[in-house]
Queue: 4 jobs
Job 1
Amino acid sequence: MIANYHTHTPRCGHAVGSEREYIERAIEGGIEILGFSDHAPYRFDRPGRYPGVRMEPEMLPDYAETFFAMRNEYAGKIELHLGVEAEYYPRYFSSLVDDLRANGVEYMILGQHFFGDEIGEPGTMAATTDPADLDRYVSQVIEGMETGLFSYIAHPDVLRFEGEVSEYYRGYRRLCVRARELGIPLEINLLGMRNGRHYPNERFWRIAGEEGNTVILGSDAHRPEDTWIPETELAALALVDKFSLHLIDKLELRRI
C-alpha cells in the first residue's frame, strides 16, 4: 500500500492513539498518502445519538485544527488529507456537508452502518435473511453514491445477508453495477479481514470481479498499529488475485 484513506481517531469513542502515532506508523510502512476519516459528526434532531459510535459535532473544529497542524509539521514527509467516514442519511446529509465544508474537510467515504437516518433503526452488521433488508441497504448506498460526494464505498459488503445465495448475488450485483457506472471504487476492508468479520465476503468480491469494479485497500485503522500490517495486506492482495479485481493504489479524491 502506498495510500490509506480510512483512518480513525479517539473522537469517535472506539479508537485509540494520536494523529501523530498513526502518521508515524504510516511512514514506517512506506505509506505515502494518509487520509484521516473519523466517523462523521451528524447533528441529529432527535434523542439517541449513539455515543461511542461517532465524533460529536463540537469535536469537528479540533479534529480539523489538529489535522492541519500535523500536515504542516509533516510536509515533505507524507501527504495528508482530511476526511470523514459517513453514512448517507438523507434527512441530515446537507447540514453535515455544510459543517464539513466550513471546517476544511476535503473528502468523504461512504460507510453505511445503519439503515434510514440511524435513530431507531437497526445496524447493517446484524445478520439477516430478508431480501428486503438487502434491497434497502443497496438502495441507500446507491442513493449516497449518486450525490457525487463520496470518494469510495467503505466495506460495501458490510450488510450481513445470510439468505438465499441467489438473492445475495442479485442484490449486491445491483450495487456493483451502479458503482462501476459512477466510477466509484469499492474498498477491501482490512479491519474486517484482520478481525475475522463477515466481510470481506468472497461472494461479493466475485461479483465485483465479474462486473469490473475498481477496488482499493482500506486499513480502517482504529489503532496506530493497524495503519500498516503487512500480513493483512498480503491476504487482501490474494483476494484481488483470486477474483482478478482492478486494484488502484491511490484515489482521485472527490472534493466535497
Note: The chain has eight helices and eight strands.
Job 2
Amino acid sequence: MYPGSLTDIKGIELGHAQGQSTGCTVIVPPKGNACGVDVRGGGPGTRETDLLRPVNMVEEVTALVLAGGSAYGLAAASGVMKALEEDGLGLDVGVGLVPIVPAAVIFDLAYGDPGERPQEAMGIEAYKNRSTGPVLQGSVGAGKGATVGKILGSASAMKGGIGSASLQKGDLQVAALVCVNALGDIFDGERGLQIAGPQKEGQMESTLDHLHILQSPQEAFANTNTTIGLVATNARFNKTQLTKLASMAHNGYARSIRPVHTMMDGDTIFALSCGDQKADLTYLGALAAQVMSRAIANAIYASNQ
C-alpha cells in the first residue's frame, strides 16, 4: 500500500460508522478552512454542493460527509449537523449556528440489505468516532458496501472501499480520501497494474475492451456506482482555486478507473485548504491527481486483504 492518510493534514479529524451493508464517513476540518468541489458523471447524489460554487457566498465548511445508501444516505449529514450544533460549531447567522455540511453518496443498495441506509444516528456515531489518527481503510465507513468492476454486472463485481494516502514535498502537504464504488476496473496507476475487475469463478478478468462491452445497453449495472472523495492541503487557497484543484484531482480518477465519469457514475471530489503554506496551483493539482490515484489503489488493497 502507499503511505500516508488524510489526517496527515494538521487539524483534520475523521470518523467512520457502518452497519452490515453500508456506512458513512465524517471529515471535520479545522476552522478557517476553505472548500471547493467538482461533480462529474451522470448520476450524482450530493448535498450543499451548489453552496460551494465560486460565485456563492460561503467559503468555509464545518464538516463533510461521504455515505452509502444512495440519496437516502444524505440523511446522515442531518445527524452531523445536529451534533455540530450541540458542540457550538457552524456558521453564525445571528440567531444561531448553521453547520455547513456538504455531502456526497454512493449507490450501494444492491450490496447486502437494501433497507439498511445511513441515517441521522449513523452520522452522529461517525462524528463521535472522529480522531486525528491514521485513517482506517478498506470495507469501513462509506466504503462498507462499495464494489467495483461492475461492467459485466454486479454479480461478478469485486469489493471496493475507503482508501487514503498523502504526499509531502518540503513543507507542502497534500492528501486524499476516496470511497471507490466504480462501474469500471481499477488500476494501480503508478505500477501499471490492473488490481480489480469483474470475476468469473473467483478469478479476476481483464475488461480492457470495455468500449466493445459498452456498445450495448447494460441493464445489470445501471445506477449502481459512483466514486466520491476529497483532497486536502496545508496550502492556502480560496474557494475558486480549490474548485480548480478538485477538477485536477479528477485526473487521479482517470488514471485509476476505466471507464470513469460515465452516465452510471456520480463521481465527486471536494478540495480543502487547511493551512497557510504557499504553493503553485498547477503543481499542487498534479500532486493531487497522483495522491488520489494512490488512495484509489489503497482502497482496493485494503478491502481485499
Note: The mean pLDDT is 91.
Job 3
Amino acid sequence: MSVKKLWILALAAILLLSGCGAGGEEQEDEVDAQVSDLPATGLGIRNAQNFDIQYLADGVKLLTDSAGRELLLVPEGGKAPAGYGDALLVRTPVKRAMYTSTTHVGFLGALEEDSLYDSIAAVTTEASQWSTPQVAERFANGQITYIVQDSWTAGDVESIVATAPDLVFTDMSSEGGTALCTMLDQLAIPYVVVAENQDTGSEAYLEWLKFFGAFYNLDEKADSLYEEKLDHLEELYRKVASIPEADRPVVAFGMVFDGIVYTQSSSSSIAKQLERAGAVYALQDLEGDGVMQLGMEEFLDECRDADILIYDSLPMYMQGTLLDENPLFAEFKAYQNQQVYTMDNGYYMNSAKVVEKFEDLLAMCHPDLAEGHVFTVYQPLQNY
C-alpha cells in the first residue's frame, strides 16, 4: 500500500473519532457498470499526497479528499455506477460553491476559465479584501455572498442555508473548520476537505489543479496545464543551475510579531525555492519543521549581512515602514541597500501561481536573468 493511501486511511480514522462525517446526499440512479481504477486517458495523481482521484468510465471520478472521505463525481445527466454507495455523490460541473479560503479560489484562476468564477455562490472573505477582479465584479453585481467566517461557531448557519451551495470547499486545520464540517453534516450540505497547504514542493502543490479541475470536468485541461507549468519550471531551474556560488545572493526570510521573528527552517519550501532560484538561504543551518521562532537580536546576528530580505507579510498588515515593525531592521544590509521585498496583498489569492512566484524569486536574486520582469506574487517594499 502506498504512503499516500496509508496517510489518507490514518487521517480518515482520526476524523471519524472526532465525529466529522461525510455529510451530503445519498447516491441515486446507481447502475451496474464496468469501471477501471486506471485512467484510460493517462490521467493520474503522481506527486500530491493529500488527495487522490481514480478516473472511472463515462467521465465519473472517485475523489478522496484530504480527510480521507470519498466523493463520487458524476457528470450532470450521467448515471452513478454501482459499488460506490458509501461515497458522497456530487454532480459536475459544480454550479453553486461556497469557498472558505481565498487560496482555493486562486486555483480557479489557474485553470484559465473565467466562467468558473460564476460558480462561486459564497466566500468567507469580505469584498474589500479581494484583489481578484473577477471576484470583485461578481460581488458588485450580487452574484457572490459574503458569509462571516466565524458565524458557524455560534450556531448561526442561516446565511449558509440561504445561499444553498451545491458544495462547500473547506478545511479542518482549525476548530472553526471542524465545527463547520459538523454543522454541514447536520444540514446534509455536501462539502469537500482541502489541505493543499500540507503538500510541499512545486510538483505536489501544482497538482491541486487536477483536484479543482475535477469538480468542473476540466480534468484533461488541468493535466495539460500541470505538465506545461512543470516544464516551464524545469526550464527556469536549468537557467540558474550553473550560477557559481560566489554569484549567489544571500536571502533572509521572516516577519516580526510581538518582538518575535517568525521564519522558516532550512528544510522549508521557501528555502528550497531560493536555492533553486540561485540564492543561498541565510538560515541554512536552522533545523526544524514548519514555522520557526527567533529573537530579533538572534535574527539580526544571523541575517545582518544578507543581500536580500523577504519580509513575510502583506503590506496591508504592516504598521507602516519596516522600521515601525522593528527599528533593528535599519542595521540590515538589505534594508540599507533597499533590497527588501514583501508579499503582494493578493499573495494568498495568487498562491496557485507557482511559476510566477518562482519567477519573482528569480528576478529578486538575478535581475539580469529577468529583464523587464513585473512582480505579481511578491513586491519590492514600497515604504522604507
Note: Residues 1-26, 28-40 have pLDDT under 50 and may be disordered.
Job 4
Amino acid sequence: MSRKTLNLSRILFLLALTVATIWIIRRHNQPTHWQDNRGEIFGTYYRVQYAANEDLGKAFLAELQAVDNSLSMFNQLSLISRVNRNETDTTDLRLRHVLQLSLDVWRATDGAFDVTVAPLVSAWGFGLQRADSVTPQLIDSLMQFVGSARLTLTPDGRIRKADPRLQMDFSAVAKGYGVDCVANVLERHGIKDYAVWIGGEMRMKGHNPEGKPWTIGIQNPKDDAASGKETMQTAVQLGDCGLATSGDYLRYYVKDGRKISHTIDPRTGYPAGQSLLSATVRTADCATADALATAFMTMGTEAALRYLDAHPEVAAYLICDENGRTVVHKRGEWVEAE
C-alpha cells in the first residue's frame, strides 16, 4: 500500500471517528423531558412528576394495582380482605413487608399504631360499615379482638390470629407504601429527579423541573378544608425523602355537636382527642412516615416529642392547639422556602 493511500485511510478513519463522537455526544446531551402523570387511586388523587423521555405511567399504575390487590380492605377480592374473612392465612411480598413494618411501628410506639384497629374504625364510620350507635358496651366487645399482640407473622409468611374475629386495616400505611412502590419503579428506570404524591403522602428525589429543591406546603390545620378555604402554615424545601401528613382536619364528622375524628386510638377504642392538630413526618421512605404520622396523632404532642427525641433519624413538624394558640414543634432540620 502506498504512503498516499495509507494517509487517506487514516484521514477517513479519523473523520468517521469524529462524526461518531459528535453523534454520541449529541445523543447523550439530548434534553430530558419532564413527565407529569395524574389520576385517581386508593380513593384519592395521585401525581407523579419525573425527568424522563419515556412515559412510565403504565408501569407504575400496574404496581399500584398490585398494591390494591394485596392491601385494600375496600377491595373484596384483595389478599387482606380474604385474610380478614379467614379464607387464607398466606401472604405475598407486599403484605409481608407492610405487616412487618406495622408490627415494628406498633412496638416502637407502645401500641399507638395498630393495624388491628379495623373493627373500631368501621364502628366509628370510617371503614366498611358504620355502627347504628357507638356505646361503651360495643367498644368493650370490639376491644376483645383488637391488638397486634394477638397477631403473629410466622417465618414462612403466614398470619396467625389469636382470635378469628381479628381484622386488619392498612389504610394508615398503604398509601405511603404505594408511593414507595412508584418511586422504586422510577429508580429501576434510572430516574434521578422525581416527586410522587398519593393524597397527602409523597416522596421526592433530586430537583424539580426548574432545577431547584422540591418545595411543599404544610397546611394550616385550623382552616376549613371542606369549604375550600385553605392556607399554608409554611412551605419547606426537601431533599431525598418520604413525607406524610396526618391530621384531624382531614377526615371527620360531627355528631350531637361533637367532632368525631378518623384517628381511632387502638388502646382505648375511642377517637383520639389531643391538642395535636397535624403531624407531618419525614423519613427515608414514605410508608414509615405514613405510619408514624398516624401514631403521633394518637399519641399526642408530648408523647410524640419524646419519641422524636429518642429517634433523631425521624423529622417532624407538629402543629398544636395550646390554649387556643397555634404552636409549632419541630424536630429535625426544616428549610423554609423563601
Note: The radius of gyration is 25 Å.
